[in-house]
Design goal:
The chain is mainly α. The chain has one domain (10-158): Up-down Bundle (Four Helix Bundle (Hemerythrin (Met), subunit A)). The protein has seven helices and two strands. It has a two-stranded antiparallel sheet with strand order 1-2. Helix 1 packs parallel to helix 7 (131-158), helix 3 runs parallel beside helix 6 (94-112) and helix 3 runs antiparallel to helix 7. 31% of the residues are buried.
Amino acid sequence: MGSFDVPLDDERTQFEAFIDEYRSGIEATLEGLTEDQARRRLVSSATTLLGLLKHVTWMQRVWFEECVGGTSRKELSLVRSPDESFRLADGDTVASVTAAHRDACATARAVVAGLPLDAVVTGHRSGPRTLRWVYLQVLRELAHHCGHADILREQVLAG
C-alpha cells in the first residue's frame, strides 16, 4: 500500500506513511550495488550513497531518540554534527548501515507510539517542538536526501 492509499483525514497515518516511503526509498538506492559503488565519491563533498543512509540514520536518532525520547547524543553514542554523520568507518558495509537504519526506524516508531501530534517534546538543544514539527522536519530531511541519493545512484550506475 502506497502513501496515497491512506485516508486523507488521518494526518498521523499520512505522516508515517510518507516517512516510511522515504525510508524505504533511500535504502533502495543501495540495492544491487557493490560495497565500492556504495562508497564512491562523485561530488566534492564527502557525500556517498552509503554515507547518506548513515546520515539519515543519525538524523532520525537525533529527532526521535534525542528530541522526542530525551536521551542525549552522548548517551546515544552519536557524533555531534551532521557533517560527522556522513563519515564512513572502515567496517561500515551496506548490510551493517542498512541494519542500523532499520533499528533506528523501529526505535523511532516505539518512541512516538501513543504520543499525539501536538505533544511538546523538549529533548532537542534548540528548544521545545511539537511531535508534528518533528515529523515534518524528518520528512523534509528524508525527501531532501532521497533526491541526492537518486542522483548519486544514477551517476554510479552510469560510471
